[in-house]
Amino acid sequence: MDIKQLVYFVAIVEHDFNMSQASKHLHLSQPALSQTIANLEKNENIQVFERSHGRLQNLTATGEVLLAHAKELIEKYDVMMEDLQEESAQLKGNIRIGIPPVVISVVFPEILPKLLAENPKIGFEVKEAGAMELKKDLLLQELPIAVLLKPTGLDSSTTEEVILTKDTLSAFMSVTNPLAEKDQLSWSDLHNQPMAIFDSTYMIHHQLLKKFAGEQIKPQLSLQSASWDLLLNSTRHSNLITVMPTPVAKYYSMEEVVRRDFDHPIYWEVILCRRKQKRYSRVEDYVFNYMRDYYELKNEE
């Protein structure tokens, strides 16, 4: 018994025992298909089909057993051949990844150049957008990999999530802002204060609105934008206050702008996400695991 015989056998069953349709599907003559099945039954001394007046009607009990095993064996055979072909080829292909702009700037400044340099035959397309938009693209299968923020709101039974890094949100403001004199802020300090925050495509926007409601405060939302550098710059020569991930201060220091912690901060957790599947493309699996392993080692340092 060989894999070809199993493929022909399954094709007949899937075409309702119609030899003519099965042979067309297999691009094979009907006599050749009939002979292959006859050889299978003869060589293995079994009968897999019930027949009536020379026509196939149904599976025998033996045929039912063979069908269950044949489907599994064919799937394993296809996976084996794909793995062998991929292993013999140099890693190459294209991959789309969705990453929020502020995450690219403060979390990915080292890994992306490293990933590109080590894999010159992989074409990377990075979509920069807020976590809310990237989540939608991931669910619509427009992105195989997306970097989101916790809580992602994704179903853990259908999505794989890996924490890349965890930090807090801080307030950024001009050195001349009266609140800059405080070493640490409470959320109530923001009541009636003019603020510049991320727009609704960003998870931080929704985290802030939830926090404001929970603390029963009403800041003046003077500016909402998807541009984190615009938000930060808007505080330099005004009384505007913005709230951003704490690591922003490490990578983008401005003499006119200071950072202040909150006494009860909102946590900023960056999550690597992909949909759970039986199999991933070699490139997709490689990139996901590379990013996961890179940050696991970085977090252990």
From TrEMBL:
Show the PROSITE patterns listed in the entry. Answer: HTH_LYSR (PS50931)
**Taxonomically, which superkingdom?**
Bacteria
Under the heading InterPro entries, the entry gives: HTH-type_LysR_regulators (IPR050950), LysR_HTH_N (IPR000847), LysR_subst-bd (IPR005119), WH-like_DNA-bd_sf (IPR036388), WH_DNA-bd_sf (IPR036390)
* Every HTH lysR-type domain range: 1-60
| Keyword annotations of the record | Coiled coil, DNA-binding, Transcription, Transcription regulation
Q: Which GO terms describe its molecular function?
A: DNA binding; DNA-binding transcription factor activity
For this record, an example GO cellular component is: cytosol
A Pfam cross-reference name: LysR_substrate
List the residue ranges forming a coiled coil, or say none: 67-94
Q: Which PANTHER family match?
A: HTH-TYPE TRANSCRIPTIONAL REGULATOR YBHD (PTHR30419), NITROGEN ASSIMILATION TRANSCRIPTIONAL ACTIVATOR-RELATED (PTHR30419:SF8)
Question: What is stated as this protein's family in its record?
Answer: Belongs to the LysR transcriptional regulatory family.
Q: What is this protein called?
A: DNA-binding transcriptional LysR family regulator
